[in-house]
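User: These chains co-purify. Model them together.
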Amino acid sequence: MATSTLPKSESLKPQPVEAPTKADWTQPRAMAIPKEGYFQLQNGRYGPLYPRTPACHGFTIIAKIKPGREEMIRAYGKTIENAIGELPDALATLKLHYLRWVLFDIGKDTYFMYQGIFDTDFDKYTEDAVALFKQVGVNTVFENLEGFPEDWKTNVPAFVKFVREHQCPSFLEYGEYPYVTADEIKKALKLKAAFSDMLDLMQ
Amino acid sequence: MGILEQLPGIPGVLIEPADGRSSLELDDIQHFLMSRPPARAARYEFLTFSSAAGGRAWLTGLIDKVGTAKTVGANVADARWVTVGFTWNGLRALGLSDASLATFPEEFRQGMAARADILGVTGKNHPDHWVGGLANRNLHAIVILFARDVTERERCRLEHEKYLQQCKGVELLSALDLEAIPPFDYAHEHFGYRDRLSQPVIEGTGAEPTPGSGPPIKAGEFFLGYPDEEGSPGGLPQPETLSRNGSYVAYLRMEEHVGAFRDFLQEHGKTPEGQEWVAAKLMGRWRSGAPLVLTPEQDDPELGADYSRNNDFNFATMDPHGYGCPLGSHIRRMNPRDTAANMNRRKMIRRGGTYGPELPEGAPDDGVERGIAAFVGCASLVRQFEFAMNVWANDPNFHELGNERDPVLGTQDGSYDLTIPKRPIRKKIRGIPAFTTIRGGAYFFLPGIKALHYLVNEGKGG
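Assistant: Joint model of the two components:
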């Protein structure tokens, strides 16, 4: 029977995927993460889920670029800058804090590192992310990576497989103000600005 | 989720385009997701094949009974309201080649029981507790029969029983009989909510969406082989003959604990009006169907029954904070409308009905199992059905709520809450009990008619 091989749930709630932590933003936190990238295997729709750490959710994708494509990839930095300039909310769905794109050499090969820090579990919104990548042109960067599936636009599972195969999980993450979402930060800054305006008006 | 009887005047039912042509191959698509025959009874039979040849012989005799989208529902008196579908194990048991089997998507190959944790179907909902053999690897096929009434269903049941006796190598694992519950003049389920208020309309069928339901959705979101909302999808099962005009359906047998539901309403609503208010806040609509976004303070049954108005609302601009329709209510999760990205990629077609006797108002719970046994039809189980279960129904942090799940469909064990935004102070109900229990489920592939013939012929040599 299929059921006999299924893991039995100890309780109705999902097992925690991270070491128990108190989400207190005033206490800086560090988290050492096992080699697999998670503490306890919990599968999402496309594979293992990675934990939320003091530095939020995120991924680090490292892949070799196709020979001679470095300038093309660099040029796309400007394209993204312009795209966000014209449409600042273009990436809102991804709930990002930061993106970092890096090119570096190992021997004769050039590698691309895509590091994203965000507030949602990537597995949940994978399809939305793929759709968004197409809209803002991130695809062009990916298409210059070796092994990237040619039919990625119409084959989300193939895209996800590539991302997961090139994901390098962190073994340490640190947050000076841990477990705070970008939305919470924006709300707090908005409140601060409103408060500051109010004080100015009261002078 | 739907009940069975046809409702006159509900848009969304197949209408042939005026020029008589359609971009869809209606004569090859099973009618199930396309048209809704006027049925008040149904029977689902779950089958297993102990021999490939036996399975193919059985299917050979059944193909002509399967109604197509062309004939059923298009004002043609075709009463072949039979649908047939297969699990991945079933396709294998019929003798489909390994090369072809490997082209089906991962989630379908694994099956629903193996994906239960991903769906959030845990605890009392877990496949360990399922009935009818649905979690077993030897669940191979389903035959769905819709019938005008119970008499007709019984006639068909006996006919199939007789046919099965002639077929060696095909056995009945279990079956479920369904009947609409009174009153029959509108679609509703055991808790008393009006149903079928929000169904996608498929582009190319000629049907008109109701106001507020958005534009028709590309056929490729529901049927393989057609362009979907993103273009022409790749990675379809091979050969093309097998996948073209097919769909995936996720089946869920969901028991409804009517006694527990009514007790909850009484506990949290002191007056009958207060109880209706609580019921409405769980669902996002009054039980009449009237949406809370449009009528937040009191029920409006006339609005609930008016298909030109009862789906004509959004959340982001009309009720951003959920003062009408709570952020965690059922309809806000199952159809977030303008509060989610790429909604056209998440649409699903629901079919099914109620089973078990109605529990009369005021009667104590009799312990008899009753509920909804429904199908969700789509082109991608992982992108459409599993997303809805994983991200919308069972993610405790949906809309940043923190500790809530869908109060109707979500897996509940008394440890989750429901926040009801209210002025001046919100109401938080802690410890939502389980009003429903998943008693079974499975992923099936509903092949097109040509694909059924392919399945019959393909394995013969081997």
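Residues 1-21 of chain B have pLDDT under 50 and may be disordered.
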